[in-house]
Amino acid sequence: MHDYSSNPAPSEKIDALTQILCGLRLDGVDYERCQLTGDWSFFYPAQEDAYFHFIAGKKCWFSKAEGEWSELAAGDAVLLPRGSAHILASSPELTPLPFRQRERRSCPAAINGVSSSKFETSDVSRFFCGSMRFNLDSLHPLMDMMPNAMRATDLMTSEPVIPHLMEAMISECTLSRVGASGMLARLADVMAAQIIRAWIEKSSEDSDGWIAAVRDPHVGKVLAAIHADPGHDWNVVKLAGLMGASRSSFAEKFTAIVGKTPARYITEVRMHQARAWITRDGMRITEVAYQLGYDSEAAFSRAFKRVIGMAPSKMRSSGNA
After folding, report:
1. Which of 38, 73, 111, 135 to pair with 257, CA 20 to 30 A apart?
2. How would you class 107 by CB atoms within 10 Å of its CB: exposed for 0-12, middle for 13-18, buried for 19 or more?
3. pTM of the full predicted structure?
């Protein structure tokens, strides 16, 4: 008989979630500083990579596609972790135009060689925009739970570092210093990570589902181990040992909290990892199957199609992500 009623120390409560978050990385894909005057409105289509926008000058407006408008003031940042379609505009009444890649490339030309004094006018819209890629697959439980859009100002009370990052980003946006774009890209990565962490901590105060499962002092330890090494030869005996429980009590508690059997959860984690390796890294299917512990490519392909809904070979050839 195992007693699960004891309350662990706060550091133990966050240990499993911390381990999983340590595996979350952001890779800069495309960042640009933009300076605009007059009226403007851009539509950003849905994409696989996350969107990130930081406002440094005149206020502007943000809307998820066909959604409500919200005002963004200088120092505000928006992260769209799943690359959802949205609009940025100087006014909600304007008809948006597509924000094409050539326009993004032209933005730095409006900034290079301009002295900082020219940025001080209140009529200039300045923002830092870009795309970033998560190393996690978009079907990962953490990614799936995130809202379509996350604003930094909504999370500032729970993350004291965010205001300091905002100040640093405003400084880099408004001063035409050497290496400003590179500094902004690094600050944007840190800002995005802080936004996600603040959202997780805020959500976990009154949450259920996956975050609640990771927060559980016993099941969380098991989940962290699975995510750290999805290709390991996990079985009920090994996982129950991590929890310090019998096989039956472990399986019962895991299923009750996570909402899935251990075997199902392990398979899903493996297939999400496989999907990322195939679509993002171009890894060969035979190598993916080997890395995830499958004896044959055929067995792996059956599991992949059952979870993802498409054969891995078809996903590779079609370029789906």
Report:
1. 135
2. middle
3. 0.69
